[in-house]
UniProtKB/TrEMBL annotation:
NCBIfam families: CDF. Residues 224-287 form the Cation efflux protein cytoplasmic domain. This is Cation diffusion facilitator family transporter. Its main location: membrane.
Length: 326
């Protein structure tokens, strides 16, 4: 899988390099600040692609004594770096657009620039769709983030093409820096979103989609000894998943029986996330009398209270660090 991810990101890097050169050629032909804005953003594609290549290589390295949880967290640095670069490009674009408002320049060879820009946009569209699909299939944050950036480039280029066509037929040259300002704002927003996603990962913010998947698979295969599940915490680094939780079991089970129950939970979670590597840390709690009200074990030799009803597992009772009913 690592070789496939590297091959994909290297393809993205090579294509981005060629397309960036084509956009700068279009700028030299037309002197359009909007095209220059598009070209500046494409430079970020190249720089981010190079950084992403290294992050994928590092994320694929096995665990070691210094990195017992693996190296997958570097992907959050990768998308954070890309987001910061995009944000910086947006600022440069806004500054350049304001300069062109103050000191306007006449456009040249718009038709030639449009043909070049149209070709680069089509190539970027194909590349962006490929990266987004591959990122989803491989569950790679780096590839998905790169694909998101490429698709943003596509949308801004489409708007730019429309603006240049209007300028060509109307002579409204003020539209060139105006479009560049809009592009700059959109690029700033996209850069912020990527940085926000990076910070969330680095701060170990809970991914509720992962939590829901774990709850769903364990609820569907709930063992009669599994009295409750609580204090669940999930982390995802690249294709590595770390699931921590507490499970309440009958206090009279032997150690070998407790081990079998824990092993069953681990197997179910691993099967649910079979596209990656899963590691579970499960703490077992002994049941207490209050658990009898919702304990599913029909023939319990020590039941002290009658069964009143099953408690459905959800975020509300699985995430807090307390037994159900307390």
């Amino acid at each position: 899988m690592l070789k496939k991810e590297l091959r994909i990101i290297l393809i993205s890097l090579a294509v981005s390099f060629v397309l960036t050169a084509a956009k700068f050629l279009a700028y030299m032909l037309t002197h359009s600040v909007a095209i220059l804005s598009d070209a500046l953003e494409s430079i970020i594609n190249v720089v981010a692609g190079a950084f992403a290549s290294y992050s994928i290589y590092l994320a694929g390295k096995p665990k070691d004594e210094n990195h017992p949880y693996g190296h997958g967290k570097v992907e959050f640095f990768s998308i954070g770096f890309e987001g910061a670069m995009i944000f910086f490009a947006g600022i440069l674009i806004l500054v350049k657009a304001v300069q062109y408002f103050i000191f306007p320049q006449e456009l040249h060879k718009v038709e030639s620039g449009l043909w070049l820009l149209g070709g680069t946009t089509l190539a970027n569209l194909i590349l962006g769709l490929y990266l987004r699909r591959s990122g989803k299939q491989l569950n790679s944050l780096t590839i998905s983030g790169n694909g998101q950036h490429i698709m943003t480039d596509v949308y801004s280029s489409l708007g730019l093409i429309i603006a240049l066509v209007v300028i060509h037929f109307t002579g409204w040259h003020w539209l060139d820096p105006a479009v560049s300002i809009v592009m700059g704002v959109l690029i700033l927003i996209n850069g912020y979103r990527l940085m926000r996603r990076s910070i969330s990962g680095l701060m170990d913010e809970t991914d509720m989609q992962v939590v829901d998947r774990v709850i769903r698979v364990l609820s569907a295969n709930r063992g009669h000894n599994w009295i409750d599940m609580h204090n669940m915490r999930t982390q995802q680094y690249g294709n590595n998943y770390h699931i921590d939780c507490h499970i309440t079991l009958p206090y009279y089970l032997e150690l070998s029986e407790v081990h079998d129950e824990v092993k069953r939970v681990e197997e179910l979670v691993s099967k649910e996330f079979e596209n990656g590597e899963t590691e579970c840390f499960i703490h077992t709690d002994p049941c207490i009398p209050i658990c009898c009200h919702y304990c599913l074990k029909a023939e319990c030799p020590v039941r002290s209270h009658p069964f009143t009803g099953e408690i459905t597992w959800s975020r509300d009772n699985v995430l807090p660090n307390r037994k159900h009913g307390l």
